[in-house]
Amino acid sequence: MNDTSKLEYLIKGIVLLILDIITFLLVFSFWALLNFPVFLWSSSAILLTLMMLNGVILTSRYFIKSFGVGVYSSLLASTLLYYLSTMVFTGATYILIAPKRYVLLFLLITLVYILVVFGLFVSGVTKNQDLVRKEKEKEKMLDLNLLLFRINDNLRKSKDYVDELCYFELSNAYTEMEERIRRSTPFGSTGKPVIENLETKILTKLQEINESISSLQYLEEKVGKDKSIVDALNDVKIFTINREKLNIQ
User: Are 181 and 206 in contact (CB under 8 A)?
Assistant: First the structure.
């Protein structure tokens, strides 16, 4: 833990200690005797909300890391409102309210708080999943574009050591494949396992094509090899078309 983290926890600890002391002074005072049957319920309710507020503040780093600043800010505001609502509700009704009625109203406040927290949790999980999906999409598209760039670069270089007809077939097959890929939806944009497997297969196939084109300069007989590369490029085009079909199902 670095100095900044230690200072942050120290400040949080001091603020919470002051809040806890003020709460205890308000709860355990002479006024508690005015309606002692409610005292056990009200003190338990207030201490529960205080404990939850302490927990949310002390674990702020975990919530921010897991769900983001926006969700944590809403959670902190909701928990603070839950604590203040309980304090104000208890202070306003303490003298005249019956224990059963107090418990029912506090449970109603707690239910509202739980529903709000549940909504924030669902929102946070959804947002986190979206961020992970976008990061995966970014990584896959980076890998895809890098492979296409390398294949195109090696293809241009191959013009120096393959015959004109061979180069035309390779170039034409590559152009058709690239256009098909560019028109398709971004890689990594879907969470379907079958599509992700197909994307991995396409990337692997492109890597093999790049290596095959690069190795052409070292081969004396290129006719058979160049045809296999053309077939591989056509296979990738077909894989891409099948991926799009799966994507719209």
Answer: no
Tell which wins on pLDDT, 44 or 95.
44
User: Residue 126 CB: number of other CB atoms within 10 A?
Assistant: 11
**pLDDT value at position 219?**
61
Quick: pLDDT tens for 120-133. 888 877 777 777 77
CA-closest candidate to residue 180, choices 154, 162, 159, 206: 206
Contact 60, 80 (CB under 8 A): no
Dihedral sign of CA atoms 120, 126, 127, 132 in order: positive
For the chain, give the mean pLDDT.
Answer: 85
Please list, in sequence order, all residues whose beta carbon lies within 8 angstroms of the beta carbon of residue 189, skipping any fewer than 6 positions away: 133, 137
CA-CA distances (angstroms) from residue 230 to 234, 240, 249? 6, 15, 29
Residue (of 41, 135, 175) closest to 127 by Cα position? 135
Burial class from Cβ neighbours inside 10 Å (0-12, 13-18, 19+) for residue 202 reads buried
Distance CA 58, CA 20 (A): 14
The CA-based angle 188-129-193, given to 5 degrees, is 40
**Of 230, 229, 131, 245, whose CA–CA distance to 185 is shortest?**
245
Q: Are 226 and 163 in contact (CB under 8 A)?
A: no
pLDDT of residue 223: 58
Tell me: pLDDT of 220 over 70.
no
